[in-house]
Amino acid sequence: MSYPGYPPSDGYPAFPGYPPTGQESVYPPAGQYTYPAVPGGYPPAGGGSYPAAPPSAGFPGAGYPAPGGYPGAPQAGGMPPYPGGAGFGVPPAGPGFGGYPQPPAQNYAGGGPAQIPVGFPGGQAPSPMPGPPAAMVQGTQGTIRAAADFDAGRDAEILRKAMKGFGTDEQAIIDVVANRSNDQRQKIKAAFKTMYGKDLIKDLKSELSGNVEELILALFMPSTYYDAWSLRHAMKGAGTQESVLIEILCTRTNQEIREIVNCYKSEFGRDIEQDIRADTSGHFERLLISMCQGNRDENQTVDYQKAQEDAQRLYQAGEGRLGTDESCFNMVLASRSFPQLKATVEAYSRIANRDLLSSIDREFSGNVERGLKTIVQCALNRPAFFAERLYHSMKGAGTDDSTLIRIVVTRSEIDLVQIKQMFTQMYQKTLATMIASDTSGDYRRLLLAIVGQ
To answer: What's this model's pTM, rounded to 2 decimal places?
Structure first.
């Protein structure tokens, strides 16, 4: 089994401009890995990448919590009512949480293989090597950027006119919300209340319904709050949406996770670790608790000797023994930086004669398997992971609209441009094409406006 960006191959494109010419990895040897001869890339058209798990059920019920003040005082065991209240979009007063900052840029070291010097393995192992210069690291790019000529009062007026009187001008609402950053939407919300003495979110809820309502409300949530809200919703009530927990906790940066944990506490009056322990168990529970610490090493320097040692450790904990030492996998995958994990994955393939994703598939099952795979996939090619999640949210009968909305919204200012590129390479169709065929009406128009044609 393989995953886009791994094993390294000349047949699978890296992100544009990386690795630098002349610095490509020499491992693995040419011809070691074979891919299906499919024109246009890998995997074959219509085939899922990895894993081919059924899409999650998304947010159950009729979308967001019932009206009544969003968010108000935390309710024991419950979600804060929506909309209204001073908390939504306003930095909480509790200690340890300084508001809702925008997520930091997530730079990837490209989709190409880690740069391993000639002669390794075998002979003298190299000392730790610095990563590529900052100018060479492929940055990320969102489809939504802050509007240059932004005027919160003018936008508030446009939205007021769009909802005033008989009928609603949905296109006017779309034109505003799809072309403003999350920070600018918070300013529009504040200006609306100042100018009209009304809550913008309540007005939007009264004018909209269904998926387009859920999408617009998600866009108006501060990004940290939206992740915390999604996690709370995934664990509230009967059943647990494990795929949501994995998607958020296994893919965010240390800073993002710490802010989410603090927001979860200040807004919902609950401890996220206690909720995870109450809703999950075993090795999956331990993996999520590890993720909640936000303590992954984020040093971009790759230590290839350590990668070799970790790869050997993982092999001895799984394929090289009877049974599985799950704690070893948890330790390595939860603590190493993503560039370091990428080098470890490549070293593992030389030791085990199979890729790490295949070994995890053989050694684990259920949610812990999906969680560990998500970490490896993000180390190899994070945009490809989200592209796969988007594909499965729309593949087959029906659409997992909550997953579609969540990924489009949360990645719209981070790396949705790269996700779109990977989607086209993996499935031989554009993300916009698949959205257009799976959605309709104002919901479709807003999604396409966010994704960008």
So the answer is: 0.73
